[in-house]
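Students often ask why we bother encoding 3D structure as a string. The short answer is that it lets us treat folding as translation between two languages. Here is a chain of 160 residues written in the first language.
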Amino acid sequence: MATTIRPPVAKAQMVIRRPPEKVFEAFVDPAMTTHFWFTHSSGRLATGKKIRWDWEMYGVSTTVEVKAIEENHRILIEWNGPDNPSLVEWQFESTGDGHTLVKVRNWRFEGGPDTIVGEALDSTGGFSFVLAGAKAFLEHGIELNLISDHDPAALKAPTS
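And here it is in the second language, the structure alphabet:
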């Protein structure tokens, strides 16, 4: 699927010392992803599905429309729609030694120049946290809580 990429493009990448099929699975299966990124998902990623992701600690959510899945190689989604949609692509590349280079790109930001650049910068930082959290979880079984610890002032009080 050819996708037009319009700058700016947020980029992050990280080697995770696990095979591509294990790393890919961690991003499509919410039972794994919730250990390093969002707190809840309405389902597993599959082409054509619309999924809801929640970050309950911040009281925010997004709808994810899965545009493409190439098993163990690529995920393409649109999220934050309809008000502020952008595209996110993960690529999973074998490094030949049983490890995976994960590359993330986020683009098609909307708004004025300052807004677009701000969103790209925030996205770059956010996906860097996600990849670092995934690395710690997949390689060592450690949950670093990078997402919830990133902005403690924005955390919502737990409801009982």
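Translate back mentally: Residues 10-150 form a domain with the Alpha-D-Glucose-1,6-Bisphosphate; Chain A, domain 4 fold (CATH 3.30.530.20). Keep this in mind for the problem set.
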